[in-house]
């Protein structure tokens, strides 16, 4: 039986972060969230392998399926956000539904997963800097120097407050969405490629062909970051209204945009040719069509915007992890000093420094080991992070149904039961596909990669054990957790 849960009141310095002038509106949260999803990075990085290893020309349908699953998940997630406003949204919701031990497991898995995603993106940023900036600057600077410069810039920017971050991310997001939209519109205006403009990519015979599960797996990975809407609840205006709206708007925009852009690129190559090109030329898959329809100058701009897209995602995830660290420090799980706010910027600056350290040290470890920035740093850590986040989403969805069943605070059947349960099973199914196809997701069949699901499970069990230790030794902290 779950312990009593209370969602009222703010604890300690968390109240200070709750409303540093109520800065964030709907669209600022949407900018933060879509920036984390990194549309340009997702399209350039995930679409070619999703086509070649997944369902081929049916890739737009895979994005629709992934988006619909997440929209169903969002119904319960948004309903929960009207009753519980916490920076550590995942673990707060899990605690509310399943109790503190499972909630503590969720907290540790969230920290592990988001940190792994950020490490992966630093590796990806360094790799693409050598590819894009190296030739332009006539420089042979190694990837990790670019990565460490980026770490410093993210720290410098992140500590200067969420308002500045949201405005900067809004600009970068508009640029990366704009260039993908420009290419897609150009393809449409030229009536596509050899097959013209066709709706065949959405036909069931293509969507459900090949390895559809692998395609949905890559598609879902491209959405990661949208769940951050609830994390900013205490920093936005009227969170009980803004957070649900931001969640629906973010997922809907990403779904429609990804489906349209992937449909356009499939039409550009033709249903019968797209798999061959994605398999043989994955790195140039998008740039070939960009050069054809928009010219070399815009293609160069696209490659530069790829770097800004990765940076925007890094900054967004930095903000997400900082808020998790701050929330855990307020509750006494992490040192109390981490809840201090910067006198000028009102940001959790010590939590920000800890977050930066938590990614700088592993990146330095990869450098010392001589790891490849793309095939190891990015591919491996992104696979580990994706498993953790998808499983967290599934557990969160089930916890929403458990919470409303116990409290009766929302008696709408669709919002409080059917959607959370359906979303949970959908995400659980995708998580099983992820685990069964780790070699495709990570690009490696290493025993280390195969152990990733066990790593996530071990961290979750460590969280459960920590909760029981706190219950026995520090009942005050245990009682405050997740509240």
UniProtKB/TrEMBL annotation:
Keywords: Membrane, Transmembrane, Transmembrane helix. Pfam families: AA_permease. The chain crosses the membrane at residues 26-47, 59-78, 90-112, 119-137, 143-162, 169-188, 208-226, 247-272, 292-315, 350-371, 377-404, 416-436, 448-470. The keyword Transmembrane helix applies. It is found in: Membrane. Residues 30-435 form the Amino acid permease/ SLC12A domain. GO terms for biological process: transmembrane transport. One of its GO terms (cellular component) is membrane. InterPro entries: AA-permease/SLC12A_dom, APC_superfamily. It is a multi-pass membrane protein. It comes from the Bacteria. Its main location: membrane. This is Amino acid permease.
């Amino acid at each position: 039986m779950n312990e009593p849960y209370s969602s009222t009141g703010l604890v300690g310095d968390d109240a200070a972060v709750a409303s540093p002038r109520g800065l964030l509106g709907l669209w600022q949260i949407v900018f933060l969230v879509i920036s984390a999803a990194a549309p340009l990075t997702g399209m350039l990085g995930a679409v070619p392998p999703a086509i070649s290893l997944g369902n081929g020309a049916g890739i737009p349908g895979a994005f629709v399926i992934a988006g619909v699953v997440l929209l169903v998940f969002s119904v319960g997630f948004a309903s929960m956000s009207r009753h519980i406003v916490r920076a550590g949204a995942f673990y707060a919701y899990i605690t509310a539904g399943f109790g503190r031990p499972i909630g503590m497991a969720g907290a540790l898995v969230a920290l592990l997963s988001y940190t792994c995603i950020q490490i992966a993106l630093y590796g990806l940023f360094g790799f693409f800097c050598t590819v894009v900036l190296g030739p332009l600057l006539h420089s042979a600077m190694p990837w990790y120097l670019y990565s460490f410069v980026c770490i410093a810039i993210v720290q410098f920017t992140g500590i200067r407050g969420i308002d500045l971050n949201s405005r900067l991310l809004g600009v970068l997001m508009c640029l990366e969405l704009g260039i993908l939209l420009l290419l897609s519109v150009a393809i449409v205006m030229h009536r596509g490629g050899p097959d013209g403009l066709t709706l065949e990519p959405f036909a069931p015979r293509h969507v459900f062909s090949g390895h559809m599960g692998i395609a949905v797996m890559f598609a879902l990975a491209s959405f990661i970051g949208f769940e951050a809407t609830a994390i900013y609840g205490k920093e936005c205006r009227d969170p009980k209204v803004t957070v649900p709206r931001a969640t629906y708007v973010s997922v809907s925009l990403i779904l429609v945009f990804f489906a349209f852009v992937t449909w356009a690129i499939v039409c550009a190559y033709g249903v019968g040719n797209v798999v061959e090109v994605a398999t043989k030329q994955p790195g140039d898959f998008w740039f070939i069509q960009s050069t054809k329809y928009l010219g070399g100058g815009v293609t160069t701009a696209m490659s530069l915007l790829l770097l800004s897209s990765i940076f925007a995602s890094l900054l967004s995830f930095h903000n997400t992890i900082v808020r998790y660290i701050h929330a855990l420090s307020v509750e006494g799980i992490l040192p109390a000093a981490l809840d201090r706010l910067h006198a000028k910027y009102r940001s959790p600056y010590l939590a920000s420094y800890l977050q930066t350290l938590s990614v700088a040290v592993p990146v330095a470890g990869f450098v010392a080991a001589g790891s490849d920035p793309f095939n190891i740093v990015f591919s491996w850590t992104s696979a580990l992070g994706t498993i953790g986040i998808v499983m967290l989403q599934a557990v969160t969805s089930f916890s929403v149904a458990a919470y409303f069943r116990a409290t009766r605070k929302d008696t709408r059947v669709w919002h409080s039961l059917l959607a959370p349960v359906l979303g949970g099973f959908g995400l659980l199914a995708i998580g099983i596909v992820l685990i069964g196809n780790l070699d495709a997701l990570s690009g490696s069949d290493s025993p280390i990669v195969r152990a990733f699901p066990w790593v996530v499970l071990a961290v979750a069990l460590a969280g459960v054990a920590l909760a029981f230790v706190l219950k026995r030794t520090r009942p005050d902290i245990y009682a405050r957790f997740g509240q």
